[in-house]
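Q: My labmate handed me this sequence with no annotations at all. I'd like to see what the chain might look like in three dimensions before we decide whether it's worth expressing. Could you predict it?
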Amino acid sequence: MKRLMIFSGILAAVALGLAAWLVLDQPKPNPEQEWRPTPLIPKDAAIDELTMVYEGKTIKFVYQEQYDSYAILADGKDYIPDKISVDRFINAVLLLKRKKLIALDPPDLTIYALKPPALTLTVKFDGEPEPLELEIGKENYTHDAIFAKIKGKPTVFLIPMDIGAFIGLEPKAFRTRSLFYSLPMDVASIEIKIDDPGLKANLPEALDPKLVVQKSVEGEAPNWMIVSPISERAVFQKVNSFFNQIQITNAVDILDPKPEELAGLGLAPPRATVTLTMFTGRQEKISFGRQENGTVYATNSARPEVLVIPISSMVNILLFSGRLESPISERREIVPAQVLVEYPREGLPTMQLDLLPDRHSFAIAGAAGKVVLLSRVRRIMKLLRENKAVFIRHQEPYNREQYGLSRPRMHFRVLEGDTVPVDVAFGNTATINDTLITYVEDLRRKCVIGIMGDVMSQIPYGEREFTTVPKARQEQ
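A: Here is what I predict for the chain of 476 residues:
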């Protein structure tokens, strides 16, 4: 029994020694072999604050929960962010990961542009006490990744190339370039005023001295009215187009001039202004200044910066009127009771057309037995209503002789009961910017409209053409 116990003890000692030998003889772990690609940003992490430092400049992005966006802090100022640019940057940060190990403890960080780093990125997370501090260098030699390291740690690794697009960007790359900061639904009135005589001369189509359009809300439907310098219901689609133009206008550059430099940019005083008054009484005043190289300097009173925008955007905004480019504002079918047709230029006989009881034709006063089909009159009204048109002059005074309207080719007046829904004079045909138009004066609204095409060749002219029965297809 004693021998058995001794033998067992010897076996146990041998087994223990063998186990110790096996453990001690194992190769030491190789950190490079054990290294694996891992995300730098925790999954579902919420970034509270993000700071970029490069070349001595600092840009900070701070999340504002009430706006669900990031405010930009730089140069001791806060700026309105461009949501698309900032979101693109935040997404690039969220996708950061260690792609590939380069060196555990390289002797020289300068070869990776990590001493000093090209960019230092500090990310603070919601609910996390310790931020991530990432030092970012240059692109690798295959230009598909960027060298990086955690601040205070020696290991160099590669990160995705996406973040490289933001290295060296100025703060204005992340600032909004919008001209308008409010919501169209909050606007109660629009006022457009052109003060500079030179600009006014170049935009003769604009309403003068100033356009004022006001909105009232009846139930849920907005109702826009032009109240100055004319009184007329505004077309809702035109107002929408105006706001679309302001909202899509983006600056090609942003300037931060000193107050004394505004005069040199034509902004003190401005050449033209657009004042948008909210229902709360707050105003946004958009001012336009000097033109230069196809652009114009502009400001919004809500912010101090100067925006450089295309001249075409300014022109489209200033030419807004809210008016329908047609002598016929009624969308319903008009049934004329009487029509007067005159020919001042050629001196053809005046025609007075009286609707007959059949309500499909007119009798010509003083011409017994001759009738004019209602469809002939409707042909003219259809053209006036549907042909594409532009405003030439919104209001008097204007040079009628210039447009062939001092002695028009034809005067067309429609009576419906006690109202005159159509009263127009047809003038000359001209080519403007390679487009053929006919000048038409709306005698009710006292304005000149350019209707596309040679209108006089498309409508009946003279008693003979009015009384000739056309083919059915031509009447469609």
